[in-house]
Amino acid sequence: MKRIMIALVAVSLAFTVNAQQNGYSNYAGLTLGGGLNTMTFSPTNGTQSLGLGFDAGLHYTHFFGEHIGLGLGAHYTYANAYANYDGTVVTPGLTHPANPGVTYDLHAGFNNWKERETVGVLGIPVEVFYRSMLNEKWTFIGGIGIQFDLPLHGHYSGADGSYRTTGVFPALGNYVVSDVPEHGFSTYDDASDAKIDNLGFNVSAILDLGFRLALGDNWGLYLGLYGGYGLNNMISEQKDVSLMVVDNNNTANIDYHGTFGSNEIDNLHMLRAGLKVGIDLGWDCRDREAERLAREKAIQDSIDAVREAERIAAEKAAREAREKAEREAAAKKAAADRAAAEKAAAQAAAEREAAEKAAAQAAADRAAAEREAMKAAAEREAAEKAAAERRALAERTKAEAVKQIQAINATVYFETAGTKAKFDAVTDGAIHAICEALKADENLTVTVYGHTDNTGSHAINMKYGQKRADALKEYMVKLGAPAKSINTVSKGPDEPIADNETAEGRAKNRRATVELK
Predict the structure, then answer these.
(1) Checking phi first, is residue 128 left (phi over 0); if not, alpha (psi -120 to 50) or beta?
(2) Class of domain 2-284
(3) For residue 272, which of 148, 228, 405, 429 is within the disulfide window of CB 3.0 to 4.6 Å?
(4) What is the pTM of this model?
């Protein structure tokens, strides 16, 4: 009878726990999703197609009551998109180093060319959640909020198709030059994997809808849908170069800058939509511990009541037995009954002691976990502060370099019909200062303009203007300036600053100037 009553009490309490298992205040777990993880953009000379990707992350949610909660997390999103080109893209007004006096138009004919863009993003979601318990097992959970995205990496590569480059020379009656690889005119069918370097911080609106299935007293399985869209433009730096550019240092190379690294797009937004699964652990930090202790006390009180009833019944039976049997037999039975009761009491005391020890260990574990969480938060805050200081220092250095170059009057004069520069202390110091600024920040670029007087033909003067610009660039490179940061352009006799009718005026017009691009 005692065992039956104890079993009935335990079953009743077990059903009570099961009915409450979806009502925890705290949830933490892992999620994995997949679907339309991509970017949206509009290429000037092509079209876009969406791609698939995945999302994986950690989450923590705290419910302040029965329905409303706040969630935080950390997610990694792997997104893909495609840019498609099928047609001709024309870059006009180029000058080939082999014939600087003649301009031409670069025609890039794309034949079903498909470029793949891949981006990895670290996201920090902040969401407000609503939950509704449907039954003992299922709970509906919906969330809406924002996610802060930080790009971790970006790459593009050719996925399919080909493109062919040709040169059209208007001055030669639109003469077409093709299949000359040594001058950059050929057919290409691939673009090697290259880095995307102009992606910035993004804020997305996000939505989650799903259901939680209770797997036990604490564990749960989440199944649902997720979606999100970027609210701001992820392009941090607008590129001003064309999709295809001839490398002036090696005319056999065609520089393919990619959709994100050229002037093909000026707007980019993240897009997420797909299915999500997750596993989580639910627990309470405050009232649930008191409830657990109350349930344990109720079980113990029920057991004690059953034992008390059994003791009374045993005493009554003993008295009846003593009335019907000899005193010695009755005394033996009573002694046996008392020994059994004492053994049961000792067992109950041991069980209570073990339960109290387990509760104390659980409290210690929770305190240690909270200390580790506080330590991790402090370390993250310090890392973010250091990163912000490094970015601010880099911006100040670049701004100072730009001001320094803009403030310098860098004009170098040349001898008649030659490329030998005439330096004095002031001019040479200005050139040295510009070179130091370019070495300090390789993202800065300058343009060297070569000028002549009007002596001789225009074509000859354009040639000398280019040679003077190249000579000054060569001198700056010897001083340590990066060659890729210096562009050269010939102005010939077209922009005089003095009267070409006098020797003094012509001497002032034979010059090269350095200007910030």
Answers:
(1) beta
(2) mainly beta
(3) 228
(4) 0.50
Give the whole-angstrom CA distance, residue 455 versus residue 461: 8
Say how far apart CA 217 and CA 213 lie, in whole Å: 11
Strand partners, 110: 87, 163
pLDDT band at 459 (very low <50, low <70, confident <90, very high): very high
**pLDDT for 292:** 59
Q: Which residue has the higher pLDDT, 191 or 363?
A: 363
| Residue 119: per-residue pLDDT | 96
CB 471: neighbour CB atoms within 10 A?
20
pLDDT of 142 above 70: yes
Mean pLDDT of the chain: 84
For 343-374, give one letter per residue: b (16+ CB within 10 A) or e. Answer: eeeeeeeeeeeeeeeeeeeeeeeeeeeeeeee
Closest C-alpha to 410, from 509, 495, 508, 513: 513
In angstroms, the CA 202 to CA 269 distance is 8
H or E segment to which residue 436 belongs: helix 425-440
Q: State how far the alpha carbon of 51 is from the alpha carbons of 78, 84, 270, 275, in Å.
A: 10, 13, 11, 15
Render 328-349 in DSSP notation, one character per residue.
HHHHHHHHHHHHHHHHHHHHHH
Q: Do domains 2-284 and 408-516 have the same CATH topology?
A: no
* pLDDT for residue 467: 92
> Is pLDDT above 60 for 276?
yes
* Rounded-to-integer distance, Cα 162 and Cα 291, Å: 70
Q: Is the predicted pLDDT of residue 18 greater than 70, yes or no?
A: no
Residue 362 one-letter amino acid:
A
Domain range list for the chain: 2-284, 290-382, 408-516
Q: 173: burial class by Cβ within 10 Å (0-12, 13-18, 19+)?
A: exposed
Q: Which residue has the tokens 């892992």?
A: 30
Class of domain 408-516: alpha beta
Straight-line distance from the first to the last Cα atom of the chain, in angstroms, rounded to the nearest whole number: 96
Rounded CA-CA distance 235/258 in Å is: 14
What's the pLDDT tens digit per position in 40-63? 999 999 999 999 999 999 999 999
